[in-house]
Amino acid sequence: MIKQFFKLFPLAAASLFVFAACNSAENKDLKINDLEYFANRGVNVLVYSNTFSGGFNDEKDSGIEIIHHGVRTVQGGAIRLSNTPEQWDLVPATTSREVNTDDNSIEVGLRYDDYDFDSRVVVTGKGDAFEIAVYLDKPVPAELVGDAGFNLEFLPSQYWLKTYIIDGKPDRFPRYAVSNTVARPNSEKIKQYKGYKTYDDRGTDQFVDPLPLATGHEILMAPDDPERTIKVTSEGADLNLYDGRILAQNGWFVLRSLLPAGQTGKVLSWTIEPNSIDGWIREPNIGFSQVGYMPDQPKVAVIELDKNDKILGKASICKVNDDGSTKTVFTGPTDTWGPYFKYNYVKFDFSKVQEPGVYFIKYGDTQTGNFIINDDVYDHITDATSDVWIPIHMNHVTVNEGYRIWHGEPFREGYLQAPVNTDHFDLHGQGPTTDTKYKGLELIPGLNVGGYFDAGDFDIETGSNIGVVQNLTSIWERFHPMRDYTFVDEYQRYVDLHRPDGKPDIIEYLEHGVLNIVAQAENIGHMSQTLTNSVLDNYHHLGDAASITDGLHYDPRLKPYQKSADGKSSGTPDDMWAFTSRNPSSDFRAATCLAAASRALKGYNDDLAARALKESKRLLKEATELMQSSGRGAGNDMAANLQLYISTGEQQYLDRFKDQINRSLSRSAINSLTTALEAIPYMDDAYKESLRPAVEQYKHYIDSLETDNPYGVPIGLGNWAGSGSVVSFGSTICMASSYFPDIISKDEAFKATSFLFGCHPYHNYSLVAAVGAARPKQVFYGNNRADLSFIPGNVAPGLLFRKPDHFENYDDWPFLWGQNEGTIGGNVSYLTFGLAFKNLMGR
Ligand SMILES: [Ca+2]
Ligand SMILES: [Ca+2]
Ligand SMILES: [Ca+2]
Questions:
Q1: How far is ligand 3, taken at its centre, from the CA of residue 619, in Å?
Q2: Cα dist. 792→433, 757, 798 in Å?
Q3: How far, in Å, from the CA of 500 to the mean position of ligand 2?
Q4: Which ligand is located closest to the Cα atom of residue 510?
Q5: Predicted TM-score (pTM) of this structure
């Protein structure tokens, strides 16, 4: 509607805002549907379908949200206590949610416990617009007057460079955050989550507050893009438009009105008119493997369709000829799978196309990017992960690539003992004792060696690092990959990408992981939970890891920011902390991985292999005693018992493993089959045969996924998207098929690769950075996310489910970790899967 209006009238007339009666026959009323959100063509308005209840406070996916022509461009509609809230600013609890279809409204109760401050937000559909009204039974608490307001946040990547018109004045959303700010005294700052501070005030005792880009009563956003056009009108209060990226790169554009002081009842009313394009139908999303296909493999595209779209009976494959011309080489029927959450799905089988070459898919007017059919298309699927992503995440070394330093040597000052009774923002904590010989804030020597950054952040998650060492050992023992394109010098603490050094990279990566775990065992005495930032304003660091801390030992006798005369210490409390509360099951896992790693390191680094074995034996003994004395029973980890049996040959571990695996498989084959299969090379034939029923059960599970969803893989609906489960699924298939090809065909493994490489909901980009010739994803939540970029080889968690029916993976906005962050654990699992897959396919 708005589109037609502005076609008739040039921009100068825009302030007339003639949102005249809808002249189309289509009913555009925003009505509450069965899933309890407001919907009309191209517009979904969600009211607290997703609440502020994630593990990390404001995750930018809660409150009042708008999915506008298929893209979730608006969220965060809530009473907030600052102009541009950051991740660790307070969020309201949702105390009630009432859906009233009679008067087409949804009401939520919001509460800030810290201020005993309650409010009600009522959203009412009114024709093709909706009203947001705020009601107070008691006035805004005095200490929040001037801070409490209603905020609504707009996705920067969908609005930047587009225009807005506020009270008749046109302007443009900025591509980069450049706008005015003021510095205000800290005493005026609303406290942040658990009293943390997201900023370092450098001794000024002031915080930075963004000033509005614009102020008015009526704003028309993106009139130049009908899919994004929205008008917001405020009855009384000023509307202020802010740029949240000023304080935090993951901030959104924020529209905000302050709540008035001293008033009760209806204190605020906004009218919001999201444009709905007449007869809009979302373009079909043709899912296929961007990496391509082997000639004789099954090839099935899954086409995701708007429920208003007509299903076409046929689709085609076109070949790109040597002279650039194209030719349709195959036309076949589509097969309707049916509805799955928001969309309809059809499948298109083109397995008959087998001749090597360059192709694309055509469905109606939609055609895909090109893909390759050839024997070797999968040969390089793990190279970026192995050559680039993993070495960049090596901690305590400098990492160079060509002309670029990815990071210098981080944390040269080492790690301090975390003080007792300390909560941590990354979901850890130090208990009432240190469980070490160190006092709080005392230096624990020797920990700044080896290990891997966890993910988009720079901590060492000990549990993940143990898993990484375990997986790298397993990769080495199963596949013996001799790939050597990384130079690692532990003495120089220097890593250079793409430079062979005569040593297999996997062994070097394994050594790097073991160095930190052995250092923890030797210096702490047991495993830490994590080695991590002590202050929040270091935790959200973006850029070079070596610049997070100042490299100088913290000396509390100095003033903040003061350096000692000898230049070796500073008064800046930025040193990293070790959280050392003892968890014997962690020690048990460490013992296991060190026993396994010592096998692999023998002949490569004999000294480290011997230290690893020594610590393994000690930790195993101590952990077993601790677990027994705490009544937890010894060795509840069947994978660990298997590894200990392989390392020691001792019957007790074999007995325990067999007992556990039998019980676990009888409950369900789905979670424990991989561990059971891993044992086959070390067991007799009878053991292998005993697994047959479990493998058959897994085959039923694989088949059942064909009716669960159109992609035939496990699709997670949690707050962290599910690529990891698809990788595990693929790994299990590869191993099961290699031992039981009569039950599980190797063809099943292509379901996992296809999904990861583009055959999935929302868009069809490869979820692995830089892998997938025509269209890998462009942005990931790595430590370079502020550049809207990626680190090659990263595997995105992928399709994040938003309640009640929306899958999402932003590819122009990296900052939602549940969609776009990769982890060291997840990416090493992908490497394991990729190598197993290539092995199975004879590559
Ligand atoms: Ca972390
Ligand atoms: Ca190497
Ligand atoms: Ca320091």
A1: 31
A2: 42, 14, 15
A3: 5
A4: 2
A5: 0.95
- Cα(464) to ligand 3 centroid in Å equals 25
Contact 601, 524 (CB under 8 A): no
- What is the rounded (10 degree) CA torsion for 61, 64, 65, 68? -170
Contacts 24+ apart (CB under 8 A), 320-324: 320/357, 320/358, 320/359, 320/360, 320/370
Angle between helices 638-648 and 584-601 (to 10 degrees): 40
CA distance readout (Å), 399 to 382, 405, 407, 474, 545: 20, 6, 6, 25, 10
**Residues near ion ligand 1 (Cβ under 5 Å):** 426, 454, 457, 459
Give the distance (Å) from ligand 1 centre to CA of residue 820.
14
User: For the chain, how many residues are written?
Assistant: 843
State pLDDT tens for residues 156-196: 999 999 999 999 999 999 999 999 999 999 999 999 998 89
Between the CA of 322 and the centroid of ligand 1 the distance, in Å, is: 49
Higher pLDDT, 609 or 423: 609
CA pair distance 520, 826, nearest whole angstrom: 23
Give the C-alpha distances (Å, rounded to integers) separating 808 from 176, 722, 760, 818.
Answer: 24, 12, 11, 10
- Ligand at minimal distance from the CA of 482 is 2
- Nearest ligand, CA 426: 1
What tens digit of pLDDT does each residue of 782-826 get? 999 999 999 999 999 999 999 999 999 999 999 999 999 999 999
DSSP line for 373-395: ESTTTTTTTTHHIIIIIHHHTBS
**CA–centroid distance, residue 459 to ligand 1 (Å):** 5
Provide the CA 131 distance to its chain's centre, in angstroms.
33
Residues with CB under 5 A from ligand 3 (ion): 413, 549-550, 552, 574-575
pLDDT value of residue 19: 41
> For the packed helices 462-479 and 584-601, what is the interaxial angle rounded to 10 degrees?
30
Return the ligand number nearest the Cα of 532. Answer: 1
Judged against a pLDDT cut of 70, whether residue 231 lies above it is answered with yes
CA dihedral sign, ordered 55, 58, 61, 64: positive
Closest ligand, as measured to the CA of 823: 1
